[in-house]
Specification:
16 helices; homodimer; globular; two-stranded antiparallel ribbon; Farnesyl Diphosphate Synthase; mainly alpha; about 0% strand
């Protein structure tokens, strides 16, 4: 298929790594795992079973990590970052469960989607259960500002999902309209997760806002890279088969760019495969050829780097420290991630 | 079909009415309607369309009424009961949307189910949106105790829904197991709605607990009457076709009682129509005959009156007042409702 995704690099030219961030949050992450397991318990067997399937399915838990790492950056010594970070992960997991039902997805992170094992019904209801648990955990912290941030994120995420559904399969979606969707459905939770660090540590508003900007732009970059990898990645490394978005007729930035930059004939191709859903043998290869011809994947990566740079600059505003540098390197890692 | 449901009566022997409660909350209810409309707004058209379909579909809004009426009973003069009662209604509406998807229902209150018009996907996502809005509204009041109550209710409701799904179609469900389901999926929100009145008015714990008991038992009675009416009601008055639960293979108390009280042959009938879902012409009539033979519907109504009596006694603990009496009469109305 021959599409080369340029890797992100650290400022010193070395390969970006998530390791400094992982090391920073490792002790807290243990506690998050315990909190996740204890709050996904229920005497209704299906709940821990289904939740466990998703929770143990190898996600990086990047979102809760943001809450933990930003708390650490401020030297926060309290306990509230643990339930809040867990609530963030539960909100994310609930969204995945509902997304799989809405998208009729068969796979999630290289594992069979929960809906295929337990059914759509259980996926909807266990998603609701996890949202309820998330909400309870936040409330128990008693931090109203954290509640404001997370309830706001929940409403924005859901609105973004509906927006995406309404624009579904429309290949003439503009780049701006697409950005609006991912700003809501992906970036809002990254932003909230990062902001919470400043909230628990009671930092001034300008620091809180810097974290909002960091999280939001990192989230956008992360989603765009995800979109690019769906066409350019290696299936086995990603836990996601190349071409999943294509097969589901999901409009992402590589398609938006290909359609806008393409010829009349190419546009007819996109309309057939994405809007009408008429896909034949060889269509994915042709899609990749068209994308290559118009630099749609490298274009998507360029956009991702743009947002990544904004995230780095938002973080650069803080005084140099180990945690700050780990958070900055995480941006490069997200852009470079192929493993 | 010849099943007679005994009507509830007021203590003075007259017909119970919801009118005193409706009159009590009428001015606040106007504000609830405005709050509902303004919070179901979005530039994503599908959200106000779908939410409007459900919100305007003629529900009695009994749950928010409980918050309003209990607040009034304490002479509460503030503003917080409005967003809290609206949040209760949004939580309820979100549950209905998700329920219809899970149950594959075609009708809701005599109108086409939203999922048939906008699709299952939109129903899942707009449900999430309404939950997010509910959460935002509660957080804006800044009353942590109210947040604790409603987040707890959200988790319990979702757990009850999963429990119901797991027990689905099992005709040998015990009465206790069935009661556990409705205690969670229906009574928890009634209970929370009533309790909020004591919370906004900052009443002592014992009064709060009396309202928990009132709401919970009213909710159970309400659900049991609903179950009975599905077999004994008149379709056009209910906005729900007689036999809906039967056709969907939903196990409710009339079925639980009929199965437990029935002969081997009758049990085989229930297994065929409810568990295997093999329904033929005349099966609903036969189901009603079996129910009649074993007093399963009158038995369900007896249980409902038991819980109704507990609700009345919980309320009787408060000094006599117009609002208190309206709340007590509402119990009788719920048991008597055929209109």
């Amino acid at each position: 298929m021959g599409v080369v995704v340029p890797l992100g690099e650290k400022n010193d030219g070395g390969r970006a790594s998530l390791q400094p961030l992982l090391d920073l949050v490792a002790p807290d992450m243990e506690r998050i795992n315990e909190t996740i397991l204890s709050h996904a318990q229920s005497h209704v067997d299906m709940i821990p079973q289904l939740a466990g399937h998703l929770i143990n399915s190898g996600g990086k838990r990047l979102r809760p990590m943001l809450t933990l790492a930003t708390s650490r950056m401020f030297g926060y010594e309290g306990e509230h970052h643990i339930p809040l970070a867990t609530a963030v992960e539960f909100m994310h997991t609930a969204t995945l469960l509902h997304d799989d039902v809405v998208d009729e997805s068969d796979w999630r992170r290289g594992k069979k989607a929960a809906r295929l094992i337990w059914g759509n019904q259980a996926s909807v209801l266990v998603g609701d259960y996890l949202l309820g648990q998330a909400f309870k955990m936040m409330v128990e912290t008693g931090i109203l500002e954290a509640l404001r941030i997370l309830s706001n994120a929940a409403a924005i995420i859901a609105e973004g999902e509906v927006l995406q559904l309404a624009a579904q399969n429309d290949v003439s979606t503009t780049e701006d309209a697409y950005m609006e969707v991912i700003d809501a459905k992906t970036a809002a939770l990254f932003s909230a997760a990062a902001e919470l660090g400043a909230v628990v540590a009671k930092r001034p508003r300008e620091e809180q806002e810097a974290l909002v900007s960091y999280g939001r732009n990192l989230g956008i970059a992360f989603q765009l890279v995800d979109d690019a990898l769906d066409y350019a990645g290696e299936s086995d490394k990603l836990g996601k088969a190349t071409g999943d978005d294509f097969r589901e007729g999901k409009i992402t930035l590589p398609v938006v760019l290909s359609y806008r930059r393409g010829s009349g004939e190419e546009r007819a191709f996109w309309k057939r495969v994405m809007e009408k859903g008429e896909q034949r043998e060889g269509d994915l290869e042709q899609a990749l050829e068209i994308m290559n011809r118009h630099d749609a994947i490298t274009g998507t990566m360029e956009r991702a780097r743009h947002y990544g740079a904004i995230a780095r600059d938002a973080m650069a505003w803080f005084p140099q420290s180990g945690p700050r540098d780990a958070l900055m390197e995480a941006v490069d890692f997200c852009i470079a991630r192929v493993s």
